[in-house]
């Protein structure tokens, strides 16, 4: 039987340049999470972008492990000329929680069309897909795939 999985996404910082923090907590069905790897597939809405050059720099400095899946997109394009993109992030085990993984992703707001309303725009970041692999030894491997519905 599957145990509860708690997914929490948090946007850190203010302004156009923010960080998306993704935390995943697993229940007790997986005995040894030390043998597990968690990959997060995060869709990035058109109102945001992830800078692939920034990701490469963060990978070099071992700050985060993330790669753009989407190709041929313009990071300078405004919201109304952009498409969704996709990022794969290798989550790391949380040193302060035995059953937890976390991942960090810098995101940036795109420019939007001017409008006469209050000047605020909402952007919805959907829950990611989670792909987990655990090597339990003795040739036993466990795969878990949690998709958003």
Automatic annotation (TrEMBL):
Pathway linked to the protein: Glycolipid biosynthesis; glycosylphosphatidylinositol-anchor biosynthesis
Major location category of this protein: endoplasmic reticulum
GO BP terms: GPI anchor biosynthetic process
Membrane topology: Single-pass membrane protein
Keywords recorded for this protein, A-Z: Endoplasmic reticulum, Glycoprotein, GPI-anchor biosynthesis, Membrane, Transmembrane, Transmembrane helix
A Pfam family: PIG-X
InterPro entries per the UniProt record, alphabetical: PIG-X/PBN1, PIGX
A GO CC term attached to the entry: endoplasmic reticulum membrane
Subcellular location: Endoplasmic reticulum membrane
Function comment: Stabilizing subunit of the glycosylphosphatidylinositol-mannosyltransferase I complex which catalyzes the transfer of the first mannose, via an alpha-1,4 bond from a dolichol-phosphate-mannose (Dol-P-Man) to the glucosaminyl acyl phosphatidylinositol (GlcN-(acyl)PI) intermediate to generate alpha-D-Man-(1->4)-alpha-D-GlcN-(1->6)-(1-radyl,2-acyl-sn-glycero-3-phospho)-2-acyl-inositol and participates in the sixth step of the glycosylphosphatidylinositol-anchor biosynthesis. Probably acts by stabilizing the mannosyltransferase PIGM.
PANTHER family referenced in this protein's UniProt entry, alphabetically: PHOSPHATIDYLINOSITOL-GLYCAN BIOSYNTHESIS CLASS X PROTEIN
Stated family: Belongs to the PIGX family.
Protein name: Phosphatidylinositol-glycan biosynthesis class X protein
Name of the gene: PIGX
